[in-house]
Amino acid sequence: MQNADFSRNLLQWYQHHKREMPWRGELDPYKIWVSEIMLQQTRVDQATPYFQNFISLFPTVYDLADADQQQVLKAWEGLGYYSRARNLHTAAKTVVEEYNGKVPESYDEIIKLKGIGPYTAAAVTSIAFNAPNAVVDGNVIRVLCRYFGIEDDTRSSKTSRMIQEEADELIDPEHPGDFNQALMELGSEVCTPTNPDCENCPVQAGCIATKMSKTEVIPYKSPAKKKPHHIIGVGIVENEEGQVLIALRPEEAMLGGLWEFPGGKQKEDETISETVERELHEELGVEVKAYKELMSLKHAYSHFSITMHAWFCKLVNGTPSPKESQEIKWVKTEELERYPFPKANKVLTERLINDKN
Questions:
Q1: What is the pLDDT of residue 242?
Q2: Nearest to 232 by CA among 285, 282, 270
């Protein structure tokens, strides 16, 4: 199958089988950009309501640039990978200040914006500006590895370059945005990781993996390293007015700009209540007594997982100060929902609010 045939068959299939999405068919480069940032590490069905809410709150790049970071993070709450939101907010300010509010049209310019890498730069410029820049994501990798019979480890940079070169050769120069979306759609809906629907694939005729009956072993990805697991203890400190203490994570840290209940990792030969008491002394400069566990929960991040234990604490000595956070704040329990929290801490806030009611 020649490149032209591949492109024609793929685009014809796409016209009849593409899914409806709120950003599909969108011409506003800002909205396309937001959708592509959200779709990093996130499924379409999960991103859809977040996109609709985000655009209703920040309909233009000017609105996003003018927003307070806490507003942006609150709108992103629950979507995860919060550096995406912080970087998007910073980049929006750059677009307003340096590009007069216009999203850069060229690949070389847009990739300079914070949070935009090769994939996002190619996606936005191809969809919004019709530039022939090929995208390569997990779906594209799977389709092209099977189509060309590439059996090398997809974790290697050499394989990544090979796949990018193949995508650059195949992309339709007249309809690059549709081509990129079609290729990703094909990987998502037909050329799936397991049990691909080869009979209904528009490019099956040229697919080497299909001919060799290797669709179950291509693409090959070497095993990932085992994720570490941490035991975390956090403290719920109440004052005489019934307020609880929350801390703002450092801007440069993981989950930066989000609020949390102070705490940290358990050390060897330490009970979880001792962990809470030690961590609050280190983070707030106070002595507390962890006297009752509220709940424990498990949560998985991209590179590690945790079991978090939340303990009610009594303030024994000292005045809390933000030694390891940007800011601390005493907040009424019913006001906790106003603040953006990481997912695990969000579960705690909801439990505290429900217990009060």
A1: 87
A2: 270
**How many Å apart are CA 82 and CA 37, to the nearest integer?**
11
The verdict on whether residue 260 carries a ligand-binding annotation is: yes
- Domain ranges in the chain are 3-211, 229-356
- Catalytic positions, please? 36
Consult the annotation and say whether 200 binds a ligand.
no
pLDDT at 224: 84
249 annotated as belonging to a binding site for a ligand = yes
Q: For position 357, what pLDDT does the model report?
A: 66
Is 268:348 a contact under the CB 8 Å cutoff? no
Residues paired with residue 315 on neighbouring β-strands, in sequence order: 288
Of 194, 157, 288, whose CA–CA distance to 234 is shortest? Answer: 288
- Weakly modelled stretches of the chain, pLDDT under 50: none
Helices marked H in the chain: 3-17, 29-38, 44-57, 61-66, 69-76, 83-98, 107-110, 118-129, 138-148, 157-170, 176-189, 208-211, 272-284, 343-356
Neighbours of 58 (CB within 10 A): 22
CA distances from 347 to 102, 245, 248, 312, 328 (A): 39, 16, 17, 15, 20
Looking at domain 3-211, its CATH superfamily turns out to be Hypothetical protein; domain 2 (1.10.340.30)
- Contact between 89 and 357 under an 8 Å Cβ cutoff? The reply is no
**pLDDT value for 302:** 83
CA-CA distance, 248 to 140, in Å (whole number)?
39
- Predicted pLDDT at 1: 60
The terminus-to-terminus CA distance of the chain in angstroms comes to: 65
The CATH code for residues 229-356 is 3.90.79.10
3-state secondary structure of 106: coil
Q: Is 268 exposed, middle or buried (0-12, 13-18, 19+ CB in 10 A)?
A: exposed
Scored b (16 or more CB within 10 A) or e, 295-326 reads eebeeebeeeebbbbbbbbebeeeebebeebe
